[in-house]
Automatic annotation (TrEMBL):
Signal peptide coordinates: none
PANTHER family xrefs: PURINE-CYTOSINE PERMEASE FCY2-RELATED, PURINE-CYTOSINE PERMEASE FCY21
Gene Ontology MF annotations: transmembrane transporter activity
Intracellular or extracellular location(s): Membrane
Family: Belongs to the purine-cytosine permease (2.A.39) family.
Protein name: NCS cytosine-purine permease
Organism: Agrocybe pediades
Amino acid sequence: MSSPHVSKVDSDPEKRLDDETMPAPIVEKRGWSTNWVTRRLLRMGVEERGISPVPLEERVGHPYTKIFFIWFSMNVNILSFSSGTLGPVVFGLGLRDSCLTILFFNLLCCAPPAYFTTWGPKLGMRQMIISRYSFGYYGIILPCIMNLIGMIGFSILNSIVGGQALASVSDDNLSWTVGIVVIAAISLLVSFCGITVLHWYERIAWIPVLITFIITLGIGGKHLSNPPPAIPATAPTVLGFAATLAGFAITYSGLSSDFTSYFRPNISSKKLFLSAYLGFLLPIVTLQCLGAAVASVSSSIPEWETGYEGGNVGGLLEAMLHPIGKFGKFLTVLLSLSVAGNISATFYSISLNIQIFIPSLVIVPRYIFSLVATAIVVPISIVGAHRFYDALVNFLGLIGYWASAYVAIILIEHFVFRKNDPSLYDIKAWNVPRRLPSGLAALAAGISCFGVVIPSMEQVWFTGPIAKSTGDIGFEVAFAVAGILYFPFRWLEIHWIGFV
């Protein structure tokens, strides 16, 4: 005889499984929604949902302009400009060679993150949750850690360059530290509120920034028409710069569908891809080329060279706008705030990735982790502010390797083993470890590929034997080798453990 204290739901294994896969917001409300602060925040429109799949009844339309402006605003900023300056300053490339490298490698590297945005509407899941269907429930923790390092790193770089620009207009009355805190606080406010406010902010944040860059080009453009003669480019210098560019663009792949999981599944994937691709490509290529052009002539203009001293990109932009006096300072302030669009969206994804990194934190509302991200980014930015260029080169050069391997593994899983069919992703299994892949194949492919990647790397502190003759081909090798290895590893995993 069954105990009268055991309910039918508790005794039914199928019911227990449904409860196990219950969307996180329902689970979260058991513990958090009784708090009056949480209830008030929800009434104000703050998004509570974390990593749980978005049900169909909560999906919204009109996605094409939204996703275009998310990526456009994230990249219309000083960091895009700064990454372009690396071509002449660090790799010794001339303006023409820098711009050609920027164009062709971004045409390639912007495609994967743009494509992954099309998966959000089909599955209603965040990017790293989708990745569980390759890496498994526990195996995804390693890519999630790498993704968190990448996002925190970009937030730090953006905070530094925004703080530098804000401090440069104050005539030494405002320190870089205060500037960093101001930038981080604005970014926190937007990311704390969630996807609705984020979409609204990104639709308008780019307008004053773009106008300011156009004015800056109009004032300083006369100096850009005659760049100094450049040393002929070599394969190692071009590939070294290309690896840095890859680290800038391809790493967006780890957060792409975070911003599209609320879209309806019947939208056009082609239009969504094109909207995202242009949102990446147009600002990145344009501003990186502008950065390369300005950096190539800055040494011949005393005011620009003084402002640029120590790699202070904000000071360089302030020097370019200095001829128009106080209005130029106002425009520099607008440029300093441009990084908030990138940081706020990145904080939003960080808040989701923390829940995937530590699954037990799924009961904590998403917005709490925006505070955690800010608490991490601000002190590190302050400490690293005076080593900006070293941090930028080293970070972008390294972060592209893992992202390239990640992209290859996810694509092979999707096209080969799931046959480009969203129905082969069991959405109810998103947080049930035994109904997901073990992740052994993905981890083995991702880790093993570095046996070839490391000899192909060229960094300030290490140059591999292959890279000594070819230049840095680490991110290309990571993509090819990880993809090649994943196919047999996944085949063995399926035959030993079973297909999920």
